[in-house]
Amino acid sequence: MKPQHSFVRLQRCLEQWLLVSGFDDDKDGLEAIILGDQFFVTCDDDLRVFLKEKGKMSLKVMLIQAQNYIEAKESSE
Fold first, then answer.
1. What is the mean pLDDT of residues 25-54?
2. How much is the CA Rg of the chain, to the nearest whole Å?
3. Average pLDDT over residues 13-36
4. Which residues span the domain enclosing 48?
5. How would you class 48 by CB atoms within 10 Å of its CB: exposed for 0-12, middle for 13-18, buried for 19 or more?
6. Mean pLDDT computed over 47-59
7. Within a 10 A sphere around the Cβ of 58, how many other Cβ atoms?
8. 43: how many CB neighbours lie within 10 A of its CB?
9. First to last CA, the chain
C-alpha cells in the first residue's frame, strides 16, 4: 500500500473517531480524547467499570470521578 493511501485511511479513521467521541475536532478535543483513552485503559478493572457506567464525560470530569471513586474506596477499607 502506498504511503499516501495509508495516510488517507488513517485520516478517515481519525475523523470517524472524533465524530463518534463527541469531542471538539480541534487540538484540545483531540488531546482530551487521547489522554482520556490512555487514562481509561490504564485504570484497574473496577475503576474502569465505574467510569464506563458514568457514560461519556469530559477528561476533567473523568479525573474528578476517578478521584472520588478512589477516595470512597479508601475510606471504606
1. 89
2. 16
3. 80
4. 3-75
5. middle
6. 91
7. 13
8. 17
9. 55
The grid coordinates listed for 33 are 480524547
- Contact indicator for 69, 50 with CB cutoff of 8 Å: yes
Q: Considering its fold, how many domains does the chain have in total?
A: 1
Q: Please report which confidence band the pLDDT of residue 49 belongs to, taking 50, 70 and 90 as the band edges.
A: very high
HEC string of 10-67 equals HHHHHHHHHHHHCCCCCHHHHHHHHHHHHHHHHCCHHHHHHHHHHCCCCHHHHHHHHH
Percent of the chain having pLDDT more than 70? 96
